[in-house]
Amino acid sequence: MESVFKNFVTQIVVAKLVPVIAAYFVLKAALDGAAGENPLGSIVAAIFLMTLSATMQLMQGWNSGGEYATTDMLTSLWNYIVGQIMPAAAGLACVGAVVNFIRHRPWTRLVFAAIAFLSVTGLLKLFQAMAA
User: pTM of the predicted model, to two decimals?
Assistant: First the structure.
């Protein structure tokens, strides 16, 4: 039963259904843009759907299949978020702060957000050093 469900998810949902739904969101974004509305929500949804199969493969690689598979997955996910996503978010926050500074808009909150994103990475390293 488990292999039937896995095959259904990978061969039907991820391989066939997800690209069609993502194409719908791309079309919706184009129509929203043509109508003068903000297409950002549809674009983000399409990008999320198109990265779904790669995310699924990444998480399957983290699964040890052992007795502590759940904690291994959560540890790997946390390390990925803190090591990859947070530094990139900090860089984007710095870019946003520069753009807002040039446009004479509030920019300090973005600087503090970048510091907070980098602090999460630093706190992870601190806790790992304390636990060792």
Answer: 0.66
